[in-house]
Amino acid sequence: MSPLEKVTVGMADEKLVTVTSEMTVGHAVPGMPAVYGTPTMILHMEMAAGSAIQAFLPAGYVSVGMMVNIRHLAATPVGRTVRAVARVVGIETRSVVFEVEAWDGDRKIGDGTHRRGIVNVAEFEKRFGVTRPEPVMALSYNSN
Predict the structure, then answer these.
(1) Which one, of 105, 114, 126, lies nearest residue 45 by Cα?
(2) Distance (Å, rounded) from C-alpha 89 to C-alpha 95?
(3) What single-letter DSSP state applies at residue 74?
(4) 83, 105, 110, 120: which has the fewest Cβ within 10 Å?
(5) What is the pLDDT of residue 136?
(6) Pick the residue with more confidence: 76 or 139?
(7) What does pTM read for this prediction?
(8) Number of Cβ within a 10 Å radius of residue 110
(9) Burial class (CB in 10 A: 0-12, 13-18, 19+), 62
(10) Strand, coil or helix: what is 45?
(11) 7-28: buried (b, 16+ CB within 10 Å) or exposed (e) per residue?
């Protein structure tokens, strides 16, 4: 059984965000303009793509970003709402291809394609030697 058997072309989702100063290129690179940064736009496009298919993947599987081909078309200032949209346009053996767009109102500010690989989290982490930190016990102090 393929982990992609329930994923179909046309599935879509979107992520709405209000641009904050922390999302600007000027926040990350001193001296640059305080407008929505390209890496942040790509992150929001990837989040929309992942959420478009996550509910249709088997338990224990997730999608991970593996390719982006994005154009950032226009600047967006702090306070504006951005809508990142992702739509499935292709399904391969172990990955899904999306068309992605970002909008500031009725103005397209970005577009391109994005590919996500489908992985079993436990197998993926084992393969790459991922270890999780030990849980920290919370200390409780009685004030009496």
Answers:
(1) 114
(2) 11
(3) S
(4) 105
(5) 75
(6) 76
(7) 0.89
(8) 23
(9) middle
(10) helix
(11) beeebbbbbebebeeebbbeee
Tokens coding 119: 């992985």
What φ, ψ does residue 43 adopt, rounded to 5°?
A: -60, -45
Report d(CA 80, CA 78) in Å as an integer: 6
Q: Which residues contact 104 (CB under 8 A, 6 or more apart)?
A: 36, 74, 76, 80, 81, 82
* Digit-coded pLDDT (tens) for 74-103: 999 999 999 999 999 999 999 999 999 999
Q: Which two tokens stand for residue 31?
A: 């001296």
If you count them, how many residues does the chain have? 144
Residue 51 · residue 98 · CB < 8 Å = no
* Mean per-residue pLDDT, 26-33: 95
Please tell me the distance from the alpha carbon of residue 108 to that of residue 129, in angstroms, as a whole number: 41
Task: Give the pLDDT mean for 103-131.
Answer: 94
Beta-ladder partners of 91 = 96
Contacts for 52 with CB less than 8 Å, ≥ 6 apart: 11, 12, 13, 86, 87, 88, 98
Distance of CA 60 to the CA centre of its chain: 18
Neighbour count for residue 43 (Cβ, 10 Å): 17
Amino acid in the structure at residue 3: P
